[in-house]
Design brief:
This protein is α/β, with parallel strands linked by helices. Helices cover about 40% and strands about 15% of the residues. The protein has an eight-stranded parallel sheet with strand order 1-2-3-4-5-6-7-8.
Length: about 270
């Protein structure tokens, strides 16, 4: 059995560089043979690329997280393009819309959200230019406004770029417009939480080929490690929970999620 952690943050300050070898070794021991590490700002792009260069089982994505748009220079896209053109960069992201966190001091919510939407469009344009797919974050304090706004923007670019909406917490009905556009969703350790009935119901009913697995580490550690620092090895626990809910073997779940990872990120099975 082989699994991929399709979304983690190995350049996070919660991971030290001298730990990375052991973190990746533990992942491989759990069957997690590949990891995709995502940048969230210009400053951590080089480190994510460096990790992907150092470890053949690690690939990278380059993007600006929506919570970083107010601290990012207006002409950031030129620098981001240089990083995103690296051969170890397999997609654009993490980008998206975050309406959960309040606007920073000196910004109205409308200004903050408008800048996030502008950045998301620019990320889509970069993805189309480079022939790469895109990884999208959405989060709301209540409701689904960020999801709906992100899907509306995705709809404009769907003929050219495929998107995955990562850490998906919503119903299958909410996911359906994404799937109808040819997009994907992905599931984190939230699927193991006792109060995550919606997530596990969505994962149970999603067609094979429409979703991937991720940790979003160092955040959102699954049961039995909930509340601890997350790491790629824990993809196993999310896979186990979803396989059980779907009534399929872990081997079968791994087979179709790995095929989805290969297609979305354009990576092979040579590891």
């Amino acid at each position: 059995m082989t699994l991929t952690d399709s979304h983690c943050h190995l350049a996070s300050q919660k991971f030290t560089s001298d730990e990375l070898h052991d973190i990746i070794t533990r992942a491989r021991e759990r069957g997690v043979q590949r990891m995709v590490t995502l940048a969230t700002c210009l400053d951590d792009c080089p480190q994510n690329i460096s990790i992907a260069e150092q470890y053949p089982e690690v690939y990278a994505c380059m993007g600006i997280h929506p919570c970083d748009v107010h601290e990012t220079k207006d002409d950031y896209i030129n620098e981001l393009q240089i990083h995103a053109s690296h051969p170890r960069c397999v997609a654009i992201g993490e980008t998206g819309l975050d309406y959960y966190h309040p606007a920073p001091e000196g910004w109205s919510n409308d200004q903050y959200h408008s800048r996030q939407q502008e950045f998301l469009r620019q990320h889509f344009e970069l993805a189309a230019q480079l022939g790469k797919n895109i990884v999208i974050h959405t989060r709301d304090r209540s409701g689904e406004a960020s999801l709906h706004d992100a899907i509306s923007i995705y709809r404009q670019y769907a003929p050219q770029v495929r998107a995955v909406f990562h850490c998906f917490p919503f119903s299958l009905k909410a996911a359906q417009p994404i799937l109808d556009l040819g997009g994907l969703i992905s599931f984190t350790g939230i699927a193991t939480f006792k109060n995550a009935a919606t997530v596990i119901e969505t994962a149970t009913n999603c067609p094979a080929g429409s979703f991937m697995l991720e940790t979003d580490s160092p955040y959102l550690a699954p049961v039995p490690h909930r509340g601890q620092r997350n790491e790629p090895a824990y993809t196993y626990f999310t896979a186990e929970a979803i396989a059980n809910a779907r009534g399929e073997s872990l081997t079968d779940l791994a087979a179709h999620t790995e095929a989805t990872v290969n297609e979305f990120y354009g990576i092979g099975t040579d590891l």
